[in-house]
């Protein structure tokens, strides 16, 4: 189940996706790239009515990122303009060529002519517009240059233009040596890439204040909403180091470096950047200017709070507790109730890691509602629901609590928490074994995201909630035998959450588990054993459990029993009830295989009591099926049939295909065993009914390619057909059994001693 406290990290950079870079002391200056933009604006004004409405609209959409973004190569700029208006791109190129190959007075005259854009009763550009402000900044910056600086600018413009000319010449020579088909493929690829990819916009020098703000706001927003579209960790760190080289006191760059280090789980660099952020924030006085005398103390307490969150994220709970105590002390001295509520939420998380207490969480929810903090209150409610789910509370009460939190979300437009709530519901239904309800909730979230596909920032479709829902969806499809669909979902997850992203471990674990189940169904135990190491690296408890399953399948009973007993003690200690029940069921199966049928009964009754106490309906049904199998072995098939009718309905409604097949196979075995005391006519009817159930079980097993179970069903069917005197059907089943038996030799275990 997904953690709902990831969003409690205090993020001073993001307010509606905008970075407040108020300490970057570099003014705007003229560069060759900005001169090219000035030429573009000048030619755009000259074109006037000659441009069509569609072309003008494309250029207007292109201008804003060009004006705000960092400098780029002339070839890249020209390509972006050509995609909007090829005629205008040619005019810009000619104008730059005349200026670069002319004299210094041509550049001087160009800047003098720019002022004419504001003259007249109906000027081409309004002074207060985005374009007007840019023109005025550039004119003012140019007028402040000395003669030597003007000459350096003119030289830089010539180099900027001639560098592009040389590149074009090299490209033309490559065209002559390149296959036309390969050239077409490369051009198609470039067209698909789009005009302004962040990977191709490099910060080649010191950025102005506006460029730095735009770059940081864009990257911070992408890291929060869609990590795959942000720069790669190494590339982003390189750009941030470039920014800090020219201004080491740029606090927000340090904070973005902190977020970037968290992506790659670099504890040293993230701590270093976080401390530098708050140090620079205090030294520059940025907080004091915006918050008065409280600014200094506010920075200190939020610095301690963020440090506590960082240590908690990396599992350093004692260091996190010390930092949290410091934050609480400073917040109490300053009477900062908002900070204290954040501290209380993190205190609950630490208590949850080390102890088991929900008193702090209930107190946090009440206080958050009192102080008007709906975000914290909702997170607290969802954490409380998560804890109650693990404690075995009824599903209807949990859904009522989540309904109350949903009211808060819709009332305050907390779109991210709406996604978290739906993902929480999906995980709760999966925990209780209601796969149909889980599938419905997963589809709800996916449908919500597809409604607003235009605005990536709004739909939040690259968050942990989306990853959790897709992982559950993949597992649900795999359980029903739709492995191709599950593979497509996992492929989509790999594209959306690359291996270096922070939520990649979710799909990695589910991918390994699905591969493991397929290998076990197919009888390839050596392949399943090789996957155990990968599962253990992502989840140690799951890895140990699956290692025991492999050992059991390989008839290494004593080793499997030792492993299961150690895992049982550990899971009881950490109160992982779901895994405790699964371990007890596997232990009971070991006793069956060792012919200790009476010892298995108390183990199964203990598992059933736990499943019912914690409202784990599907596990309870599975346990009843195991009890029915025990009764069959002990010679009371009639009683086994009676309890099977109680347990089989949830399995057929919500169970995996393999479990459905095992249940129907067990019903057929019980029917055959009970028929021994029937009259001849009634016995024939019972055997024919058992054959029908075996056909259904065979269909289920074939769907998941479970060859060992198919072999057992065919053997059983052949014996029944022989008893009924149906020779042709018997021979057909015998032939299919022989083919599978040669492919999968028996391990010396009697068929009757294996339920699954």
Automatic annotation (TrEMBL):
Q: Where is the composition biased (Acidic residues)?
A: 171-187
Residues covered by the Anaphase-promoting complex subunit 5 N-terminal domain:
30-167
Name the domain of life.
Eukaryota
Pathway note: Protein modification; protein ubiquitination
Pfam families referenced in this protein's UniProt entry, alphabetically: ANAPC5, Apc5_N
The listed locations are:
Cytoplasm, Cytoskeleton, Spindle; Nucleus
Keywords from UniProt, A to Z, are:
Cell cycle, Cell division, Cytoplasm, Cytoskeleton, Mitosis, Nucleus, Phosphoprotein, Repeat, TPR repeat, Ubl conjugation pathway
Q: Which InterPro entries match?
A: Apc5 (IPR037679), Apc5_dom (IPR026000), Apc5_N (IPR048968), TPR-like_helical_dom_sf (IPR011990)
PANTHER family in alphabetical order:
ANAPHASE-PROMOTING COMPLEX SUBUNIT 5
Q: Which family does it belong to?
A: Belongs to the APC5 family.
What is the recorded name of this protein? Anaphase-promoting complex subunit 5
Q: What is the lineage of its organism?
A: Eukaryota, Metazoa, Chordata, Craniata, Vertebrata
